[in-house]
Each structure stands twice: as structure tokens, then as C-alpha cells.
């Protein structure tokens, strides 16, 4: 059926609905995720277009010269490690960059020999697959809910939330002003302004935002960007302010792992309850299972 006749058919159907049920039906049509299967492809394409726009504005390693500490921390990793942003560069893209000689998955262990070992990869963003997993399989229906992404960087969690969820408001809080500008550019270009807002701020100044959030997302926010004392203080702040009963906290990696090695006095059992996740939702060949298993969900008690 072509667009015109499909629209006619829908309008015709709406005219037959009992008047008392019409507002409920229209509200359902506005907010339901039952149409996802018809729009998913468009949403994927839009996110891929956003990734292309961002790739054109950023160097291959997707780090800015303003990120001194993160650059230094990567260099100090025990194994040679490179930064590849998983939202901007999927596996196929990395393969083609390797073929063109612009990137390598291996490093030479003994200079001049053919002995090689795999390089470590660090991504500072969720991949498209991880975003879809979070919005389709980790979080419940977000109609009317407020979501906060702590350290929103390129804005991937916000764009994913706009396209894959019905969240009422999506807030990103980002310390780095250059990344805030990039997010603003994308939000404006793709007309996401009605539901996405980015704040250029330290999360430790955003108490009331955290206190009112229904969902807080924390993807490896502090580890590469703050020294240990600052990480400890930031986690103390999070644990004091993410307190809304029944709200949800999504972290990568687990809270236990994030807090281990830090000098903090945070008791997890009175604060949160971990919600088990099913990581077996995609066929093995299509996913980076290890990456999905880093995603953890907690309910605030
Ligand atoms: C690993 S990235 C997360 C990216 C994004 N949330 C995602 O999942 O795709 C972490 C970001 O947190 C930011 N950040 C670190 N400490 C912060 C703080 N105290 N307040 C706000 N942002 C912070 C960093 O600048 C960095 O861009």
C-alpha cells in the first residue's frame, strides 16, 4: 500500500474507534514501542549518519589534546593499548582501516621479527550494539522518565535514548567543553532539542539532577579521566545523590570493580540491589559478548 492510501486507511480506522477510547489509543500511538520493528532501520541509519558526522570532526583515536590525563593513562597501560571509539568505528570499519594500513590490531613484540601480539583496545563510547542492548533489553519502558548520562562525551547514550526509548528528558553532563560543543552540533542538526539537554559541568555540581533522575548511566566515567583521589570523591558524591528509591543505575564495569582500589566508604548492600541481566539475546556471531557482560544494572533501594 502506498503512503496516501495507508494514511487514509489509518484515518478511516480512527473514525471507527469508540470516542471514549480514542484519546487512549492516540496516546498509545504517540508513546508505544510497538512500532519499533518498523522504525528500527531508520534509527540505525540515523545513528550511523551521526557517527559519520562525528568521525569527520575528530582524529582517528577520538581523543582531544585537552584530555591530558586520559592520554597519559593509556600510555601507562601494561600492554600496548590504542583508543578506538566503538560508536564511531565498528568491527567492519576497523578491518577496512587495517587493510588500508591506517590501523593495526597487533603490535610487534620483538622489533624486526614477525612475532606479534594483539593490541589492547579501549573505547570511550558505547557501540551501537551496546546502546541497543541497553535500551531494548536492560531498561524498562522509559515513558515519562528522566535519564542522566554521566560523562556524555560524544552524546551516544543521549541519541540512542532519543531514538530507541520514549524517555521524556535525556540529560548529558560532560566535563569537557569541546565534547559539549560537538554534542550541541549533533542535537541541533538532527533536531533532538525537544528531549535532549547537555550540561557542561562536573557531575559533582549536579546534585538535584541526580536526585531526580529515574535512570543514571555511567559508562567507565572516571577511571581514565580523574586521578584516584578525585575518582573516590566523585563516587562518594554519586552514592550520596543517586538515592531516588526504585530508580535505576546502569554501570560499566560493575560497581564492585569501579570502586575496588579506591579509598571510599560506600556500602553497596544498603544502597543498591543488582538486577540480573540476560546477555544471551543476540546470536553469538553478531555480538561482542565480553563487552555486553560489562554492562550492569542496579535498582536503588
Ligand atoms: C568513557 S566516556 C563515557 C561516554 C558516554 N557516556 C558513552 O557511554 O558513550 C567518560 C566521559 O566522562 C567525562 N567525565 C569524567 N569525569 C567527569 C565528571 N566529574 N563530570 C562530568 N563528566 C566527566 C569524560 O570527560 C569523558 O568524556
Account of the protein in words:
With 301 residues, the chain is of the alpha/beta class. The protein has a domain at 128-300: Rossmann fold (3-Layer(aba) Sandwich), CATH 3.40.50.150. It contains 12 helices and 11 strands. The chain has helices at 3-15, 22-31, 36-55, 68-75, 91-99, 128-138, 156-164, 177-189, 207-212, 228-241, 255-259, 289-292; strands spanning 81-83, 106-108, 116-118, 120-122, 146-150, 169-174, 196-200, 215-219, 248-252, 272-275, 296-300. The strands form 3 sheets. The protein has a 7-stranded mixed β-sheet. It starts with a helix and ends with a strand. Bound molecules: S-adenosylmethionine. One of its GO terms (molecular function) is methyltransferase activity. This is Methyltransferase type 11 domain-containing protein.
Summarize it.
One of its GO terms (molecular function) is methyltransferase activity. InterPro entries: Arsenite_MeTrfase-like, SAM-dependent_MTases_sf. Helix content is 41%, strand content 16%.
Amino acid at each position: 500500500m502506498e503512503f496516501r492510501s495507508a494514511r487514509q486507511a489509518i484515518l478511516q480506522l480512527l473514525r471507527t474507534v469508540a470516542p471514549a477510547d480514542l484519546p487512549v489509543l492516540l496516546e498509545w500511538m504517540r508513546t508505544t514501542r510497538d512500532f519499533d520493528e518498523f522504525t528500527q532501520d531508520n534509527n540505525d541509519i540515523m545513528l550511523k549518519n551521526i557517527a559519520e558526522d562525528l568521525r569527520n570532526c575528530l582524529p582517528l583515536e577520538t581523543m582531544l589534546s585537552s584530555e591530558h590525563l586520559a592520554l597519559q593513562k593509556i600510555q601507562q597501560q601494561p600492554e600496548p593499548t590504542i583508543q578506538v571509539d566503538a560508536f564511531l568505528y565498528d568491527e567492519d570499519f576497523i578491518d577496512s582501516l587495517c587493510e588500508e594500513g591506517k590501523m593495526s590490531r597487533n603490535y610487534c613484540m620483538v622489533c624486526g621479527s614477525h612475532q606479534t601480539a594483539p593490541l589492547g583496545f579501549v573505547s570511550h563510547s558505547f557501540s551501537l550494539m551496546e546502546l541497543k542492548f541497553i535500551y531494548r533489553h536492560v531498561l524498562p519502558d522509559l515513558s515519562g522518565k528522566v535519564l542522566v548520562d554521566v560523562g556524555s562525551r560524544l552524546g551516544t547514550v543521549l541519541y540512542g535514548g532519543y531514538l530507541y526509548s520514549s524517555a521524556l528528558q535525556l540529560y548529558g553532563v560532560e566535563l569537557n567543553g569541546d565534547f559539549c560543543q560537538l554534542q550541541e552540533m549533533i542535537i541541533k542538526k538532527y533536531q533532538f532539542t525537544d528531549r535532549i539537554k547537555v550540561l557542561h559541568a562536573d557531575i559533582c555540581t549536579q546534585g538535584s539532577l541526580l536526585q531526580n533522575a529515574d535512570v543514571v548511566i555511567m559508562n567507565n566515567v572516571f577511571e581514565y579521566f580523574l586521578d584516584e583521589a578525585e575518582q573516590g570523591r566523585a563516587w562518594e558524591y554519586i552514592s550520596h545523590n543517586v538515592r531516588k528509591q526504585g530508580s535505576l543505575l546502569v554501570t560499566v564495569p560493575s560497581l564492585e570493580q569501579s570502586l575496588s582500589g579506591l579509598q571510599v566508604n560506600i556500602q553497596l548492600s544498603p544502597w543498591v540491589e543488582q538486577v540480573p541481566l540476560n546477555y544471551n539475546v543476540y546470536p553469538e556471531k553478531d555480538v561482542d559478548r565480553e563487552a555486553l557482560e560489562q554492562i550492569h544494572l542496579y535498582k536503588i533501594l
